[in-house]
Write a structure and sequence with these properties.
- The chain has 154 residues and is of the alpha+beta class.
- It has one domain: Sufe protein. Chain: A (Alpha-Beta Complex), CATH 3.90.1010.10.
- It has 4 helices and 4 strands.
- The chain has a 4-stranded mixed beta sheet with strand order 3-2-1-4, with helices on one face.
- It is globular, with a radius of gyration of 14 Å.
- The N and C termini lie far apart (43 Å).
């Protein structure tokens, strides 16, 4: 299990150092901001949706390694998916990071399984899930602000 944990840590560190889809998105038609006041993670998510499908997504901001890696991997995972598929992925991800440690990971999460270990560190759940809550806000409540301490604010 240690080798797998080391691999997961390497993937998270790689996405933190070289985040994918980092930057603005000029033709985005949805956006939301996310903030974790407990540790200072902040991000702005830009999403382009066409015919109920995310065709492009990018993020800007700063945060801890888990927060930035989660945003990076999330953006890779949701491109090309419908809003309904993304909602299901969000719930699967949230269930994974809030489940009891050692709980089986839904295979539909694919590479996102690297965050399963976050469940062992409850204080890090908000770091891993901030980008996901911000994406949900961008898709369902555009131009909103999400914090890890409150419900979506408008």
């Amino acid at each position: 299990m240690s080798d797998l944990r080391d691999l997961y840590q390497e993937v998270i560190l790689d996405h933190n150092k070289r985040p994918r889809n980092f930057g603005g998105l000029e033709d985005a038609n949805r956006r939301a901001e996310g903030h974790n006041p407990l540790c200072g993670d902040r991000l702005t998510l830009h999403v382009k949706v066409e015919a109920d499908r995310v065709v492009d997504v990018a993020f800007e901001g700063s945060g801890c390694a888990i927060s930035k890696a989660s945003a990076s991997m999330m953006t890779d995972s949701v491109k090309g998916r419908t809003v309904g598929e993304i909602d299901a992925l969000f719930h699967g991800f949230h269930d994974m990071v809030t489940s009891a440690p050692g709980t089986a990971v839904d295979p539909r999460l694919g590479k996102l399984a690297v965050f399963a270990g976050v469940a062992e560190y409850p204080m890090r759940v908000k770091c891993a899930s901030l980008a996901w809550h911000t994406l949900e806000a961008a898709l369902h409540h555009p131009d909103s602000v999400v914090t890890t301490e409150d419900e979506t604010e408008k």
